[in-house]
């Protein structure tokens, strides 16, 4: 029987994924582990940052593709606010770009989603001991980056745009107006419009539709939006 004392001593986990079905599955998995408990769930990146601040979990299981704020930039903010938190990336992506950017953001582990249910508990127990954990599908990608001496990808959205510009690009691609974005980011709509013009100039794009297609191609937003 699990007691209150057991819960207090368990590994405290925040689940961040925009699909409730995934969160429910992960929560059920963790519920079967006596040394783990889910303290909060987030459906978007910005909510994950706030819940991490409020609950100070030991581990954040972070999806990469989420609305409002992508998992890469959300991870950077969480670790900036509290470097003691461990983040495990959870994604459908095993491509070099996403793996590299999440590792640069400071994650301690990286799981491919279709393996998550088999590997998550193991990954959590390894990461909590300050050791890294990578799915087998990810190791080859990391080794490839070492082999190429981690040459910078100058075409990546994470190289071309600042974190603020990526935030605005994502929200524009999700269909928010300049006023809505300004309200969410506590800046004026005029400032948002100025940022958007700079983004379009940097990317050599001429319309919101082109910005949206670019954001989807770079993985900032899902094609569902």
Provide the residue-averaged pLDDT: 88
Termini Cα gap: 44 Å
How many domains make up the coordinates?
Answer: 2
- The CATH topology of the largest domain, please? Rossmann fold
What count of helical segments does DSSP give?
12
User: What gross morphology would you assign?
Assistant: globular
**Percentage of residues in DSSP E strands:** 5-15%
CATH-assigned homologous superfamily of the largest domain: Response regulator
Provide the structure class.
alpha/beta
**Percent helix range:** 40-55%
Strand order, biggest sheet?
2-1-3-4-5-6
CATH class placement of the largest domain: Alpha Beta
Going by CATH, the architecture of the largest domain would be: 3-Layer(aba) Sandwich
Q: Report Rg.
A: 18 Å
Let me know the number of strands.
6
Order of helices and strands: HEHEHEHEHEHEHHHHHH
Point out poorly predicted stretches. Answer: 1-7
Main β-sheet description: 6 strands, parallel
